[in-house]
């Protein structure tokens, strides 16, 4: 067996920093941050330590050393919520993923264990596997220390050694463990002063001592932990199981009332969603962001307050995705149209509508599929910004008259540009025969036509030839005869031609076949009968 341990030494600080919505400001990453427990510092980031703030100091002392320090309360539940996405992310590499129990009672685990022997061949060896895992974990924003060993307990201990060793067999694992400090063991931290007084500083120093004496003085737990690490006793691990639906909460450190602050917290939750999706090779079709608002203080104010407890934002995708950047763009566009009724104190992201499919192949050159994906995302973004009903597209209908041969409908990003044959609604009159060609399109509509039409513009005529901008047109093709509309009082009888103007532009013109209106005084037609109806691009 080959175990990999992922140790997160600053998990508590990183999980707390995620709650600082104002950290969307680039300068916020450099401010000092520390966590408190029982009014004492338990952890501090590099900026705080540079100002003298270290674990063990009292709160008042820390504030005196760093007046601008951000102090938060240590929270094992918050740390556990941040660790689970790490475990979900590495489930994409092996199903044997478990959490190392916390060394101290009441504390949260900070180490994830993976058994990867069966995965090495697929990923091309340990080195390439570690690179792939590092890329998968990078979006979560955690500092990770990685060690490998032949035993699960051995990997968990060696991940805390600086630098973490990579041991591929049991002999190398035992050799590395012999030089590891004793305080890595749970009982070793409890009895550190006694062990140090006896000159027992490394795990190798304990191996030559009588086991009965060690058990009597330091407890059986120390021997059990040593035997499991050195591979001398079974150490079964229960693999984690993915929940059927995703839900993750993020309690914000301060009141949030701007879109950018909400987006910062939502980005953290989206990365957790991506990790959950990657674990099962799935893509999300719909997700929901809940923004829980601040309640009024007094009971009287709460009785008359109509502010909702939470604002729900539903995001539906035309094409399932697990691209965090794309999901964040859609969320940004929707949030820009939402006015928060009250400051937000907590965010919750939920998702249960997913699609399991094979991941897309990497492409060297653009294909029809990749171009359709770009068009789909553009439509999704426009719909998120303007509203679903505000984005429309032209749809052909079976109607011979060009000005009535299309209509606008709401754009369906899921089926747009797919090239699938869809039935076209026919607008036909009594006795009208419809001949259908490829994809259900009327066979008479297959002739070249301009995409954009204009209102018919009368053209002058000279010598039976139509004029455009004072110069005669050259007819290239036609006529295409259209006779329709006898059923709806909009009778059209026309002969259409493609003509070339003097500057080489192609235009679409027609000659009216029905009698033109006549001038009552002169009794002659008031026009030539030629009309400009469209232009080719």
Distance between the termini: 67 Å
Strand order of the largest sheet: 14-21-20-19-18
Task: List the total number of helices.
Answer: 17
Shape: elongated
How many DSSP-defined strands? 21
Could you walk me through the main structural features you see in this protein, from its secondary elements to its overall organization?
The chain is of the alpha+beta class. It has 17 helices and 21 strands. The strands form 6 sheets. The chain has a 5-stranded antiparallel β-sheet, with no helix packed on it. It has a 4-stranded antiparallel β-sheet with strand order 5-6-1-7. Strands 8-11-9-10 form a 4-stranded antiparallel β-sheet, covered by helices on one side. Helix 4 crosses helix 14, helix 7 packs across helix 8 and helix 7 crosses helix 13. The radius of gyration is 36 Å and the shape is elongated.
Give the helices and strands, then pairings:
Elements: E1 3-7, H1 11-17, E2 33-37, E3 40-44, H2 46-50, H3 59-65, E4 70-73, H4 76-90, E5 97-99, E6 111-115, H5 120-123, H6 126-137, E7 145-149, H7 152-158, H8 170-178, H9 186-190, H10 192-197, H11 203-207, H12 211-218, H13 220-229, E8 246-256, H14 259-279, E9 282-293, H15 299-304, E10 310-321, H16 324-335, E11 344-356, H17 368-386, E12 392-396, E13 406-410, E14 453-459, E15 461-462, E16 465-468, E17 471-472, E18 474-484, E19 492-500, E20 506-512, E21 530-535
Parallel strand pairs: 2-4
Antiparallel strand pairs: 1-6, 1-7, 2-3, 5-6, 8-11, 9-10, 9-11, 12-13, 14-21, 15-16, 16-17, 18-19, 19-20, 20-21
Helix pairs in contact: 1-4, 4-14, 7-8, 7-13, 12-13, 14-16, 16-17
């Amino acid at each position: 067996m080959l175990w990999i341990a992922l140790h997160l030494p600053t998990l508590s600080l990183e999980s707390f920093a995620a709650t600082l919505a104002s950290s969307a400001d680039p300068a916020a990453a450099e401010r000092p941050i520390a966590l408190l427990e029982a009014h004492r510092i338990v952890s501090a980031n590099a900026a705080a330590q540079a100002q003298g703030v270290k674990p063990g100091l009292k709160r008042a002392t820390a504030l005196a050393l760093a007046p601008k320090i951000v102090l938060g309360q240590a929270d094992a539940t918050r740390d556990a919520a941040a660790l689970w996405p790490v475990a979900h992310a590495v489930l994409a590499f092996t199903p044997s993923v478990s959490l190392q129990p916390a060394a101290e009672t009441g504390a949260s685990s900070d180490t994830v264990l993976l058994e990867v022997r069966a995965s090495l061949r697929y990923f091309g060896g340990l080195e390439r596997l570690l690179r792939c895992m590092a890329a998968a974990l990078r979006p979560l924003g955690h500092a990770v220390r990685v060690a490998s060993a032949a035993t699960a307990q051995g990997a968990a201990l060696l991940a805390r050694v600086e630098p973490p060793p990579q041991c591929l067999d049991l002999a190398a694992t035992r050799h590395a463990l012999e030089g590891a400090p004793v305080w890595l063991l749970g009982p070793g931290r409890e009895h550190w002063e006694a062990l140090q007084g006896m000159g027992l500083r490394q795990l190798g120093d304990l191996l030559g001592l009588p086991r009965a004496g060690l058990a009597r003085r330091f407890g059986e737990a120390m021997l059990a932990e040593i035997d499991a690490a050195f591979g001398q006793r079974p150490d079964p691990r229960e693999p984690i199981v993915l929940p059927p639906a995703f839900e993750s909460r993020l309690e914000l450190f301060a009141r949030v009332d701007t879109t950018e602050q909400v987006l910062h917290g939502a980005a953290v939750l989206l990365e957790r969603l991506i990790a959950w999706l990657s674990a099962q090779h799935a893509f999300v079709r719909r997700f929901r962001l809940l923004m829980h608002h601040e309640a009024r203080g007094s009971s009287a104010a709460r009785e008359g307050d109509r502010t909702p407890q939470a604002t729900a934002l539903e995001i539906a995708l035309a094409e399932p995705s697990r691209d965090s950047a794309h999901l964040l763009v859609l969320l940004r566009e929707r949030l820009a149209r939402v006015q928060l009724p009250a400051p937000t104190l907590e965010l919750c992201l939920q998702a249960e509508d997913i699609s399991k499919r094979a991941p897309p192949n990497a492409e060297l050159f653009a294909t029809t599929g990749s171009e359709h994906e770009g068009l789909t995302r553009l439509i999704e973004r426009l719909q998120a910004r303007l509203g679903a009903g505000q984005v429309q597209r032209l749809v052909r209908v079976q109607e011979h008259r060009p000005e009535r041969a299309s209509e606008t409908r709401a754009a369906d990003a899921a089926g747009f540009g797919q090239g699938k044959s869809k039935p076209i609604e026919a607008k036909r009159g009594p006795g009208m025969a419809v001949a259908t060609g490829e994809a259900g399109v009327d066979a008479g509509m297959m002739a070249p036509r301009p995409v954009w039409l204009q209102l018919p513009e009368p053209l002058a005529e000279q010598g039976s030839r139509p004029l455009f901008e004072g110069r005669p047109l050259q007819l290239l093709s036609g006529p295409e005869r259209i006779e329709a509309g006898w059923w709806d009082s909009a009778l059209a009888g026309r002969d259409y031609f493609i003509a070339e103007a003097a500057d080489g532009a192609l235009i679409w013109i027609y000659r009216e076949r029905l009698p033109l209106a006549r001038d009552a005084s002169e009794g002659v037609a008031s026009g030539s009968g030629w009309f400009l109806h469209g232009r080719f691009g």
